[in-house]
Amino acid sequence: MDCTVVEIIQETHDCRTFVFKPEKMFSYVPGQFIIMHLKNTEMLLQRSYSFSSAPDNADTFSITVKEKLDGRFTPLLWNLKIGDVLEGRGPFGSFKLDREPKPNGRYVFIAGGAGITAPWSMIQNLLNQKTPFPITLIFGNRSMNDIIFLSKLHQLCESNPNFKLVHVLEKKPDNWNCYQGYITKTVIAEAVPNYADCMFALCGPPVMITAVVKELQSLGVPPDQIRQEKW
Which one of 36, 71, 111, 145 is separated from 231 by 20 to 30 angstroms, measured CA to CA? Predict the structure, then answer.
């Protein structure tokens, strides 16, 4: 299907959100992805991107992409202009929230870098549906300048008391309230004391997700309370 670029948002120094209007709107589940192909290029030159928008958007969807200087597809995306048309196929993927937390629990999203895209779609959708469960996002990044959706996330904290944001940075700025280093079981247990009752959704680089799953297992979180997506 044809998808027309209607907006381009600079999220960070090396990350952009592309908003598309498809020729016919379709349904998708937060956590799924779409395959994008630039017209008039070789057919094999295509990439998969998680939706960063919530599925209740009336007639548009968005993907959020981190620039890869040595990539083949990203430079083409960076040259897009409003009105350009890409071909989209999908949705695909099985990463989704298919169960609720226990009665006293909460949804806990753990994301690393550009892995925030699918959790951001899920979080927006849960809040739009007025979930009765609190939500915590533990978000790992290299530095404050690398945090995608930073202002949107902080605005969400201010407007929704049931949303809690926990930053974990490798390079911690002075006078900033966050953890330094990596997402460990100590960080998880302090951020989410009732972790045994929670539903976890993890998204990020394979090395990070593997490490976080081990941390959750060491805390005794059952496998059926963990959903994960590696990219």
Answer: 145
